[in-house]
């Protein structure tokens, strides 16, 4: 049976009381979804209002010259099977209800289609999707949208695309951590019968290797953008309206109109007050990755992942590193047992680790940066002088720096942009992804959110539905965890079974000198994986298997019965499952009871 619906003027951003300059349909017209119904013209733009669905126009409520606002009825539409079907290139989704696979938790966009901006005389160019920021979230969204047939512009303030991750984050830090690990290995091999001479560190060479690694990737991205016909515009972008962004670059100002935007402007290091930031010896992670020199003594403020990774880099190059952390543990968020092997090694290799302590003030002097300490750590000095200080106490989102209010996008006081599970902001045609939408601030979260945003815009019925997001500290040794931690399970009263395999019983780990490693899996009452923690070389790679098990709803028997290659570290995942199951033979099965 056919059904008649009233089509209303949709949310048209900051337009109100806008003139209809053309009515494009009449009673009896058969229309396809997205067919233009009326054309509106304001002093800012000309906008076609598209049909939300196929059908036959029964009656038209408006006429040319009439002024309308959001919610005014346009026409009565009878939905029918005979209605024309649209088949052209992917029609961008404008309707949260239509595009949503399941009710997306906080979906709050209007259920009427957002208007498609027709060429705005005030813009210099136009696109279907504008991606603001080219980090892992941004470039993934841009590339996916382009692959789905959409016309995409990506705006980036820096000449190199790739964002924090590629340029001053994940990639350069891992290049340096790898070099550091090789230095450690070379040192360790002296006891195994292979002796190398004292390492000679050519800092320019090391920096060159790191830069080359970054360049290879950013160059590859540039190529991929070109091949996909994603136009990259360099400059700082700011919203000027609900459908336009102005980009200020070296070549001048360009105002780009868009139908949809994806905000992926990421985050920046928190500059803790009280430090003499104008002194080059006080660094954030970006400065630390520059490797200006190898300081004799360095203080790392913050015992989270980024601080500890950089601490490992500098320690392996010969710096005496002190870490000061406000909480009572390093790597807050991970279970103590999987952090312990790292802590043990760090205690030996770092000059000092001060927990439950903070820097109360810092001053630049000729001798160095004098830091005053306060806290409960044993042996904490009142003050100490360091050649360099790295402040790594977290990152703050860039949401408040893009004039989002011009588009009506809400930004929290801290600079985060709230989104629903389809990555939609409070403005239906504007999406946000990555660090700017919240924790955890990790590249793999950003990329997955980027794909969701692009696919929703292209009309796919998807939403972001990850059961867990893994965390990895690429320290020496690596520490990785995902899902429910044991400490969280205990605190929340979650019933669980624990399967632990100590790497001291793994032939491969012994051969690698990684006997202090450990694999731990947590299972719920039905025996399904709910969490995992690993410590040891390649823990970050191994956590991928536990993630797959979690997403697939794997049970302990599934993992234990999966034949893993021997001798590998991946076996330890299967052994941990067998330990929980009680069928382990490589160690004694844990006592039941
Ligand atoms: C030292 C370090 C190590 C890290 N290691 C890891 C790791 O190993 N694994 C991991 O998962 N994560 C890691 N991270 C975190 C990771 O880098 C971020 O989570 C990730 O880059 C976020 O991606 P994004 O796309 O949200 O934003 P970003 O990568 O921050 O990219 C945002 C981009 O937007 C641009 N931009 C901002 N505002 C504007 C504007 N107005 N106009 C134009 N362009 C703009 C910025 O220049 C930037 O290029 C690390 C971070 C740091 C600092």
Automatic annotation (TrEMBL):
Residue span(s) of domain Lipoyl-binding = 4-78
Name by which UniProt lists this protein = Dihydrolipoyl dehydrogenase
Origin species: Thioalkalivibrio halophilus
Q: Which domain of life is it from?
A: Bacteria
Q: Report the co-factor binding details.
A: Binds 1 FAD per subunit.
Matches recorded under PANTHER family? DIHYDROLIPOYL DEHYDROGENASE, DISULFIDE OXIDOREDUCTASE
- Keyword Ubl conjugation in record: no
Q: Which UniProt keywords apply?
A: Disulfide bond, FAD, Flavoprotein, Lipoyl, NAD, Oxidoreductase, Redox-active center
Molecular function per GO: dihydrolipoyl dehydrogenase (NADH) activity; flavin adenine dinucleotide binding
Pfam families assigned to the protein according to its UniProt record, in alphabetical order = Biotin_lipoyl, Pyr_redox_2, Pyr_redox_dim
What is the reaction catalyzed? N(6)-[(R)-dihydrolipoyl]-L-lysyl-[protein] + NAD(+) = N(6)-[(R)-lipoyl]-L-lysyl-[protein] + NADH + H(+)
Q: Which family does it belong to?
A: Belongs to the class-I pyridine nucleotide-disulfide oxidoreductase family.
Checking InterPro entries in the record gives: 2-oxoA_DH_lipoyl-BS, Biotin_lipoyl, Class-I_Pyr_Nuc-Dis_Oxidored, FAD/NAD-bd_sf, FAD/NAD-binding_dom, FAD/NAD-linked_Rdtase_dimer_sf, Lipoamide_DH, Pyr_nucl-diS_OxRdtase_dimer
The misc remark on file is: The active site is a redox-active disulfide bond.
């Amino acid at each position: 049976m056919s059904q008649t619906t009233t089509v209303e003027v949709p949310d048209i951003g900051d337009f109100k009381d806008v003139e209809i300059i053309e009515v494009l349909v009449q009673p009896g017209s058969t229309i396809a979804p997205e067919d233009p119904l009326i054309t509106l013209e304001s002093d800012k733009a000309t906008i076609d209002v598209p049909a939300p669905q196929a059908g036959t126009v029964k009656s038209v409520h408006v006429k040319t010259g009439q002024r309308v606002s959001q919610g005014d009825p346009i026409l009565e539409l009878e939905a029918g099977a005979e209605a024309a079907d649209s088949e052209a290139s992917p029609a961008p989704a404008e309707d949260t209800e239509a595009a949503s696979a399941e009710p997306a938790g906080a979906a709050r966009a209007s259920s009427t289609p957002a208007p498609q901006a027709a060429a705005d005389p005030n813009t210099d160019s136009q696109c279907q999707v504008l991606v603001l920021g080219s980090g892992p979230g941004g470039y993934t969204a841009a590339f996916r949208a382009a692959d789905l047939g959409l016309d995409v512009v990506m705006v980036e303030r820096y000449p190199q695309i790739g964002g924090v991750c590629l340029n001053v984050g994940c990639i350069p830090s891992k290049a340096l951590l790898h070099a550091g690990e090789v230095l450690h290995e070379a040192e360790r091999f002296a006891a195994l019968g292979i002796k190398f001479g004292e390492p000679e560190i050519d800092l320019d060479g090391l920096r060159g290797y790191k830069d080359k690694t970054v360049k290879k990737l950013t160059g590859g991205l540039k190529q991929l953008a070109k091949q996909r016909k994603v136009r990259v515009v360099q400059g700082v972008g700011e919203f000027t309206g609900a459908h336009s962004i102005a980009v200020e670059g070296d070549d001048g100002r360009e105002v780009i109109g868009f139908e949809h935007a994806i905000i992926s402007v990421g985050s920046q290091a928190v500059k803790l007050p009280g430090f003499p930031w104008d002194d080059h010896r006080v660094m954030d992670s970006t400065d630390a990755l520059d490797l200006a020199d190898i300081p004799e003594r360095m203080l790392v403020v913050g015992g989270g992942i980024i601080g500890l990774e950089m601490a490992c880099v500098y320690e392996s190059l010969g710096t005496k590193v002190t870490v000061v952390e406000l909480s009572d543990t390093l790597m807050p968020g991970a279970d103590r047992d999987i952090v312990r092997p790292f802590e043990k090694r760090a205690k030996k290799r770092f000059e000092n680790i001060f927990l439950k302590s903070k820097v109360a003030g810092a001053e630049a002097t000729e001798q160095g940066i004098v830091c005053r300490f306060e806290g409960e750590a044993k042996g904490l000095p009142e003050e100490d002088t360091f050649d360099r200080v790295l402040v790594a106490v977290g990152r703050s989102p860039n949401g408040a720096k893009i004039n989002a209010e011009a588009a009506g996008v809400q930004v929290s006081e801290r600079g985060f942009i709230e989104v629903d599970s389809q990555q939609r902001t409070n403005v239906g045609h504007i999406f946000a992804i990555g660090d700017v939408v919240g924790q955890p601030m990790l590249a793999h979260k950003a990329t997955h959110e980027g794909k969701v945003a692009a696919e929703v815009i292209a009309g796919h019925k998807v939403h972001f539905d990850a059961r867990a997001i893994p965390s990895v500290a690429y320290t020496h040794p690596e520490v990785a965890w995902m899902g429910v931690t044991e400490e969280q399970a205990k605190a929340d009263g979650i019933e669980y079974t624990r399967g632990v395999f100590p790497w001291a019983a793994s032939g491969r780990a012994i051969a690698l000198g990684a006997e202090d490693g450990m694999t731990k899996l947590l299972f719920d009452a039905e025996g399904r994986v709910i969490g995992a923690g690993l410590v040891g070389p390649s823990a970050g790679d191994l956590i991928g298997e536990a993630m797959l098990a979690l997403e697939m709803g794997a049970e302990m028997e599934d993992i234990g019965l999966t034949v893993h290659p021997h001798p590998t570290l991946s076996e330890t995942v299967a052994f941990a499952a067998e330990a929980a199951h009680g069928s382990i033979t490589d160690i004694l099965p844990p006592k039941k009871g």
